[in-house]
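Pipeline run #58 for the internal structure catalog. This entry was flagged by the ingest filter as a single-chain record with no existing model, so it goes straight to prediction. Upstream metadata was stripped on purpose; only the residue string is passed forward. Reviewer on rotation: M.T. Logging verbosity set to normal.
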Amino acid sequence: MPRPHYVRFDSFAYLCSTSFIISDITFVKNILLPIAIALASTLTLHAITPQTLQTESVTDELTRRYITPVRTVAISPELGASVKNADALLQHFDGQLAVSSPEVCVLSTRNGNRSAVLVDFGRELCGGIELAAPIRASQKAAKVRICLGESVSEALSDVSAPGATATNEHSVRDFTIDLPWLGTIEVGNSGFRFALVELMEPDTELPLRAIRGVLRYRDIPYTGAFSCSDSRINDIWATGAYTVHLNMQNYLWDGVKRDRLVWVGDLHPEVMTIANVFGNYDVVKKSLDFARDTSPLPGWMNGIAAYSMWWMIIHRDLCLYSGDTDYLAAQLDYMHRLVDCFAAGLDGNKENFQGGQRLLDWPTSEMPEVIHCGYQSLLVMAMDAGTQIGEWAGDTALSDKCTALAKKLRKHTPPTNGNKQAAALALLSDMAKNRKAERNAITEGNAHGFSTFYGYYMLEALGKEKASAEALSILSDYWGLMLDLGATTFWEDLVYEEGLKAARIDEIVPEGSFDIHASAGNYCYKGHRHSFCHGWASGPTPWLSRYILGIRPLKPGFEEVEVEPCLGTLEWAEGSVPTPKGPIHVKHRRLPDGKIDTELHLPDGVRLAAH
């Protein structure tokens, strides 16, 4: 047995250390020896060896990287006047303090005022921060308050203030700690870009050698790529990819600050982003299985029937991109029972599905007629996905069951009432009575009425309708507006009209200007509770790969693929999409006569569909 690193003290250890003479061999053989053997077995069970570490612990799947701030943010005279040499925090620090550290930032409360420094890490992070403090005259711990924020406004907020919308829910981002003298400490785990460090001890000076962000992320390559003639569109593709990359934690989260949970509706845009940027990663399957295993039927995933519909759609799309039919086959029993639950939830001749919380997205949550139409279309999409899944898995019973239910649902087509979310689902499900009218409903007012979650399906519907020019205009205005306001990741929600009048999130909001993080938001994302890194907002990234590059799998694992670019207003676009057989590379150029010239490189085993 390998030498244990640690042994629990027990009676056997005491017995082995006691010196005595046993003259009765029967006593030794029949009583003492069995006790010793039993206790030795107990000893072995409690020894920590490399083998037991593997079986009794969980490996962190993530990588840690230390991030130096890119700037300090000038804050109010009350907080910042007693800070000297703040730029020292922008210098490289390798993690090791020295007894003599001449280049330090000094916070001082000797003048009776508050003293704090606010640093900007340049982009959204997921993780905590590290503080390093060299020798102080007092040689004792100093209390500091740390406030992390996705915006400057949030970093300067206070969860304890009357009427505050800032919270410590899901991740603690506003807290006080003891900072050791001549020591380094790592604290916190949240989603943030900015960090406020405030000295809480009166009549004290605190030297700080460093404030570093501790980024926790999945160290994986960006196999997919996108570039085009519009740099703003390029930035949007990359920002969507980075948003989901941060949310690829031990599970696939909805947001790195809030909620840090596996919400299945959020997963679909995220899974599509991962498929088009990173390829096939087990964090997706792990999260889908978690949703299934924590939602025993007849319950709905996350308590929302629409999210169980998305679960089926995700499995269809995941198989198309990954080709993992074995994993798909493992879901069939649950899918059969889930489809039975859908069938049982239909209500009379209108086929108005009832079950769980009836929710599409928050902006339509108080529109029952829109939800009715949306549910009808979404359930058809889920049943169409189930039909394909059954065909690929050789499960004709599932295919027949889903086909029959979809046929029944298509007999009733409720009106979309001009709503963009409902119109998008009606087009995607082929439930639209008037495709031109539904397309016009989506494009009316350009980005007005868009939402970060269902905006993806509005783009998908426009792509399906060959309306890439209109989609690009909306994409540039709506998601680009977040970039204009200083975003480095995409948000849980954006009301376009509010964004147009808002101040930037990476600056102190000028007096009289609209603070979009403190003052905007409804439902679960009021004020600073609003998540500024939310995976469901990443939809432009897969859409650009699917419709501008035009790369879409038709059979599992890209056995067959269509490449049909629609450049819209762009002069050129190029990029790649990962497949199980290697990446597909394309270059599209608009010729003087308006036609598109395409260079296409397919890996072996991928067949191009005939036009």
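catalog note: Residues 1-23 have pLDDT under 50 and may be disordered.
catalog note: DSSP finds 20 helices and 17 strands in the chain.
status: ready for reviewer M.T.
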